[in-house]
Amino acid sequence: MRDVPEGRLADWVSRRFPDGTSPQWWLSIFESLEVGAAPFREISPDRRTSDLNLAAEAIVLAVEIEGIRAAIGAYWMLRIATLALRFDPQISGLPHILTPDGSAEWALRKIPITRERAIAESGKREAEYLNADEGFYAPVGGDVTLADEVAFSELQDVELILSALTWVFSHVKEKGIQREVHSWIEVQGSL
Asked: Rounded distance, CA 48 to CA 27, Å?
């Protein structure tokens, strides 16, 4: 992927995987690029910048083509932006989406529900757990039938994004984004 010209990743992926890719494939790409750009790696500054830019491009693409859920993309974008913050002096040549402001703004747009609905859904989930009978839990030592496709709730997506927003929050400079992130982080304790 490193040899693919910037902006041509979508074409490369569609040619190489005409039937699509799995979420696990995308996650392995993100992890590989994250490790490749890590501070302890002795690579050139240009290679590090290139890997971080490629990670951002891959995350955006994976979300756009629904190769991964938007919440996972937001989590990874925040994770890569946090990695970029670890360098002193700061890395130049990174896209806005890898800044604290850019990654936070992008992640906020991926939150699937309002704060009020998240709190309500959290209350419903808590009530389900508190009122659950033995049929709610997997049998101990018995057979477990797994669904063909796992469904993630919108609340789980909110929780995933919020867990990563805290990493960049103290570095966000734009007041509107700061307020929105702060509002969500305040809600996090109620979920």
From this structure: 19
